[in-house]
Write a structure and sequence with these properties.
Strands 2-3-1-4-8 form a five-stranded parallel beta sheet. It has a three-stranded antiparallel beta sheet with strand order 6-5-7. The N and C termini lie close together (about 5 Å). Helices cover about 45% and strands about 15% of the residues. The protein is α/β, with parallel strands linked by helices and about 220 residues long. The radius of gyration is 17 Å and the shape is globular. The structure holds adenosine monophosphate (AMP).
């Protein structure tokens, strides 16, 4: 079963995808994580990619489709994939349909997580992760129990994404509304689109997503 999680930055796609991964035995593919890993590994295109991410703009469709096309061939994607942050344009959505078709597969559902822009800005500009174990925190909504110490592993080092500044977040939201939202009618026409309210509490959003996935599992 293949799923797409769609939604603006900060809507909770990543955390919800992790939960689905465990519950349904699927592989989460986050194109944002893949790009950040490429930048960190010293990829020759790293500097250019970093500039694109920090400007809140999209990396080219060509590069993203090539990246996903290679990745879905790997063994860990055999049971199905949760696409997190891909597709982000109608061209990417069409390319994904083609790639899956070539493998004799297709999408089972597209889950849209909706959220208000201002709530997203508040959420994203406060978030940080433990540099050692990856635990997620938020300055306002989910601080560490002891200031500066990870609750899970005790580390005192934390990562902040360079594109999580208010200015870049507003640009990323603009990019989402302009370039990614037009995908919604594309999937609605195919009868694949399910929308959930991402302003609700995390467990309630997870419950609604699971209900949508259960309603289609077995169909693809
Ligand atoms: P994310 O971690 O999903 O918020 O992605 C971070 C950034 O990576 C985005 O703001 C884009 O600059 C870039 N990016 C991630 N996925 C894509 C994609 N499918 N197409 C183009 N750019 C992407």
């Amino acid at each position: 079963m293949n799923l797409v999680l769609l939604g603006p930055p900060g809507a909770g796609k990543g955390t919800q995808a992790q939960r689905l991964e465990d519950a349904y035995g699927l592989k989460q593919l986050s194109t944002g994580d893949m790009l950040r890993a490429a930048i960190k590994s010293g990829n020759p295109l790293g500097r250019q990619l970093q500039e694109t991410l920090d400007a809140g703009q999209l990396v080219s469709d060509e590069m993203m489709v090539a990246m996903i096309s290679a990745r879905i061939e790997e063994a860990d994607c055999r049971n199905g994939v949760i696409f997190d942050g891909f597709p982000r344009t109608v061209d990417q959505a069409e390319a994904l349909d083609g790639l899956l078709q070539e493998k004799g597969s297709r999408l089972a559902a597209v889950i849209e997580i909706r959220a208000d822009d201002q709530a997203l800005v508040d959420r994203i500009t406060g978030r940080f992760t433990c540099a050692k174990c990856g635990a997620n925190y938020n300055k306002r909504f989910k601080p560490t129990a002891v200031a500066g110490v990870c609750d899970v592993c005790g580390s005192t080092e934390f990562d902040y994404r360079s594109d999580d500044t208010e200015e870049t977040v507003r640009k990323r939201l603009e990019t989402y509304h302009g370039q990614t939202e037009p995908i919604l009618p594309y999937y609605r026409r195919q009868g694949l689109l399910h929308s959930v309210d991402g302003n609700l509490d995390f467990d309630e959003v997870a419950r609604q997503i699971a209900a949508a996935v259960d309603s289609v599992s077995g169909s693809a």
